[in-house]
Structures are given as structure tokens and as C-alpha cells.
Amino acid sequence: MTAEIPAGDTPESVLLDEPTTADLRAKVTEAWREFAAALAGVLADLPSGAQIDLTLDPTASGTGSAVYSVSIRVLPEGVIEALAVGNAELPPEFRMDRAAVADMVALGWSPPGVLAGSRDSFGLRSEQSKATTLAALISRTLRDVYGAPHPAFLVYLVHDEEDEPIDAGPLATARPESGLDPAAALDDLTDEQLLGEAVADEVPLDERVRTVVATMSKTTVDQLQVDADGDIGIRAGSAMVFVRVRDNPPLVDVFSPILTDVEPTEQLYVKLSELTNRMPIGRLYCAQDTVWASIPVFGRNFQAIHLMLAVQVMTGLADELDDRLHGEFGGKRFFGEGDKPAPPKNDGDHRTGMYL
């Protein structure tokens, strides 16, 4: 079925605002900056005894039983103590190599056991007055050493000494530990339920989209994180999905960078064409060195259920296709084996042992 182009819009105008106009690396970098700023703000205001647990979601990252985490605790007199997982707490195949351990020390972490009470974890102490510097250090640890590709792959819990939860506000796109899968089925919700008493047709398209995505993500519209491009990011297994609202023509684009750093070849274009022909909606294409998947949702006569279905389809599609296409054409998945701390080599020269 051929989509009808609304009057006044040309094919060229419809295609001008492709997702590929966004700099993916800049988008991810900005997401980490926002996470570090949010973390610094929370750390600066936490009372003594409060703790933040940050964990790379193993169900999203494919790390199985390996849990990469950082715990931050506020001690009396504004002292902050942080502990980060060490090799003794990780399965053998996911332990950090010497380069990763050196990176941890270079960032400012003391090796396991050096800081009193750290036992098998890397440790450091700082002050609440230096929350900005500490938050940047922890962000780099999660991103550069533990391999989190985006803050949306992190889950967090803020609690007091009795493990009672503390409402400290959102940490950018990181998800509260109690949050549910954003792709959960919401077919029984109508537009009126999603938008309250407002008449759907009188609500601007961007507001309606944010309401739908916030509902699917089990958060509020005010807490929903929108990046500098106006895109909403959703973690989808080993992939990332973005939702963008366009004004002319009114359109909601649900898209995902399936592979980056991939070599455009004739075989790749043929494969993408074959897969697109088999998709009931949406398309796959390659621009520069990135393979994208895109599902459009018409903004005119917008229906919340259409966006929900597009997000559900894209989250499943992206998480499946990145593995399949990576195996055939190489490149980098948003989160893949090459992005995780490399397992140690078999020869003894590269093993760090249980100490680190």
C-alpha cells in the first residue's frame, strides 16, 4: 500500500528530516552529560545515610549473571563513599582485563581492599561539595569501563539506611529499579485515558506523544527526558529506539540505529531491501555508515494505540536485527560484545586474578 502525501507536501519535503540528520554520537554524549548533571544534583542534596545504587541492567545488556554496579553512600559530615564492582564479584568470562583495571585506577578508584571496608570492590571517598566531579567520574566508569552504551541502560535505586526508598527525582534517562518494561502492552488504554479529561484533537501532537511514551515508560511527562534534538530515547534490549515528532507534515517517527561503523556494500543494500519488503510497516536503510530502522506514525488523526504498536514493533525489531545484521555485515551494535569489558585472554600474562 502506498502512503498518500498530504496536500502541500512534496516527496522531497517528507524526506528532508531523516533521523540520520541527527549526530548519533553527539546525542549519546549529551545523554551522558545530562545523566552526570542529574546525578550531581541528587548527590549534593542527599542526607547522611542515604545511598544510590546504579546498575547496568543485565537483561538489557546481555551480560547474564554479570552485574556491573556502583553504590554511593553519604556518610556523616558530607563525606561520600562509593564502591564499584571488582573482578572477584564477576563471572570469569566477564572480568575486566588489565587495561580496564588500569582505567579504573586512572579515574581515581582505589583497588579492591585498599579503602577500608571495600573488600572485593573498587573504592573511593569524596565530599558532597565535589558532587559534580564525582558524578562525572562515576558516569565515565559506567560508560567507558563497564560499557553502558547509554544512561537508559542503567537502573537505579535511592534509599535510606533502613532500605526505605527515597524520592530523589529522576536521573535523566536512567530508570528507577521499580520501573516496568516500556514496551508493556497498553492496548486497553484509550486516548481519553492517556490524556485525562482533555479532548484529544485539541492537544498538540508533541504533548500527546510525550504522554503516550511516558505512560509506556511508567513515568510522568515532566520526568520524561527529551534530548537536544527533541527526541525521546527508549532502551530496547541491546538497541536504542528514539521517538521524534515532526511538524510538516505532522508525523511521529519511531527510529533506531541498528548498526554503526558498517561498510555500505551492495550485499548490505540488497539485504536491507529484502528485509524491508518483508516488514508489514516501516523500512530499513543505510546512510553513511549507519543502518537505520524507521516506522512512521501519521500525525493527522493521531491515535495513541498506533504509536504504542510502532514502539512495541520497533523495540522488538531493533533488538533482533542488530544481532542478525552484525553477524552478517559486522559494524557495531548499540550495545554488543565489543562494547562490554573484554574477557581476559587465556594466557597468564593478561589475567589480573581474583584480587582485582
From TrEMBL:
<dbReference type="Pfam" id="PF22551">
    <property type="entry name" value="TY-Chap1"/>
</dbReference>
<dbReference type="Pfam" id="PF22552">
    <property type="entry name" value="TY-Chap3"/>
</dbReference>
<feature type="domain" description="TY-Chap N-terminal">
    <location>
        <begin position="30"/>
        <end position="154"/>
    </location>
</feature>
<protein>
    <recommendedName>
        <fullName>YbjN domain-containing protein</fullName>
    </recommendedName>
</protein>
<feature type="region of interest" description="Disordered">
    <location>
        <begin position="332"/>
        <end position="356"/>
    </location>
</feature>
<dbReference type="InterPro" id="IPR054344">
    <property type="entry name" value="TY-Chap_N"/>
</dbReference>
<dbReference type="InterPro" id="IPR054343">
    <property type="entry name" value="TY-Chap_M"/>
</dbReference>
<feature type="domain" description="TY-Chap central">
    <location>
        <begin position="205"/>
        <end position="336"/>
    </location>
</feature>
